Amino acid sequence: MGSINLRIDDELKARSYAALEKMGVTPSEALRLMLEYIADNERLPFKQTLLE
Fold first, then answer.
1. 3, 52, 48: which is closest to 28 by C-alpha?
2. Cα–Cα dist 3/25, whole Å
3. 40 alpha carbon, distance to own chain's centre
4. Spatial separation of the C-alpha atoms in residues 33 and 35, rounded to whole Å
5. For 12-42, b where at least 16 C-beta lie within 10 A, e where not — what string?
6. What is the DSSP letter of 24?
7. 3-state secondary structure of 45
């Protein structure tokens, strides 16, 4: 099994982990689900928008 390392802002990590915990999903599960979706559908599971 492979692994992924990424760097993110500390605040984003804290907010994301807290939200995922409320959903009962680990960060690894969330990323795995997103990657499975991308592999199956060849697109992101959300609409891309640019923030200004």
1. 3
2. 18
3. 16
4. 6
5. eeeeeeeebeeeeeeeeeeeeeeeeeeeeee
6. T
7. coil
- Structure-token pair, residue 11: 């605040």
Q: Answer for the pair 29, 21: CB distance below 8 angstroms, yes or no.
A: no
User: In order of start, what are the domains of the chain with their CATH numbers?
Assistant: 10-39 (1.10.1220.10)
Interatomic CA distance for residues 33 and 26, integer angstroms: 11
Q: Are 17 and 27 in contact (CB under 8 A)?
A: yes
The alpha carbons of the chain give a radius of gyration, in whole angstroms, of 13
Tell me the two tokens of residue 27: 């960060």
| Tens-place pLDDT, residues 1-52 | 899 999 999 999 999 999 999 999 999 999 999 999 999 999 999 888 877 7
